[in-house]
Design a protein that fits this description.
Layout lengths: L4 E5 L3 H13 L3 E5 L2 H10 L4 E5 L7 H10 L8 E6 L3 H9 L4 E5 L3 H22 L3 E4 L2 E4 L4 E4 L2 E3 L3 H12 L29
Parallel strand pairs: 1-2, 1-3, 3-4, 4-5
Antiparallel strand pairs: 6-7, 7-8, 8-9
Helix pairs in contact: 1-5, 2-3, 3-4
């Protein structure tokens, strides 16, 4: 069985060693980085299966690292779990909007982090399996990517090509949070969200 490669990015050596120790016990391979520039170099040199990424990093911060990873086709689908202090929770939400899959607050229980890593790895594996299928199942929903047909409980659903591509994209990537740009034209879907009206007092 292939051992997943996890990249742990944090500038606190004790925390990195603690996380590395527990992930190795779960039969993961672990690479580490203490700053954003090193993290990007390691992620692009050998694509990890998942990245644990601290927000507050020297040099290039975690948000910018996340943005650059998502902008690169080689790393755009790698699951990212952000680490954040309570005071940085707003930045973590921004990180989710930029493509991070999850975040966990410091201080955290290592068991919780390991459980979240396992869940994200399972989700990524399911997405990879679905990506190569001609027929994708999601409960009672069936998507035939050859015939471009969608059925729900055996009943056909009429969709435009753009709607079909959008639905297939979301089902194949179930379990991952997407920003507006992720499912817009940058993914080749040709779909644009309507701008929401400005809030009024």
């Amino acid at each position: 069985m292939r051992r997943p490669l996890i990249l742990v990015v944090d500038d606190e050596p004790d925390l990195v060693e603690l996380v590395r120790h527990h992930l190795v016990r779960e039969h993961c391979l672990v690479e580490t980085a203490g700053d954003g520039e090193t993290a990007l170099a390691k992620a692009w040199a050998k694509i990890p299966d998942l990245i644990i990424l601290d927000l507050m990093l020297p040099g290039i911060d975690g948000l910018e690292v996340c943005r650059r990873l998502r902008a690169d086709p080689k790393t755009e689908c790698v699951p990212i779990i952000m680490l954040t202090a309570k005071a940085e929770e707003t930045d973590a939400v921004i990180g989710l909007a930029q493509g991070a899959d999850d975040y966990i607050r410091k201080p955290f229980g290592v068991r919780e982090l390991v459980a979240r890593v396992a869940a994200r790895l399972r989700g990524a594996e399911a997405r990879r399996a679905n990506a190569g299928k001609k027929v994708v199942q999601a409960g009672e929903l069936t998507i035939d990517t050859v015939r471009h047909e969608v059925t729900l409980r055996g009943e056909p659903i009429q969709l435009t090509m753009t709607e079909f591509r959008l639905l297939h994209h979301l089902v194949a990537g179930a379990g991952r949070a997407y920003s507006r740009n992720d499912i817009g034209t940058t993914r080749g879907l040709g779909y644009k969200f309507k701008e929401l009206p400005a809030e009024t007092e």
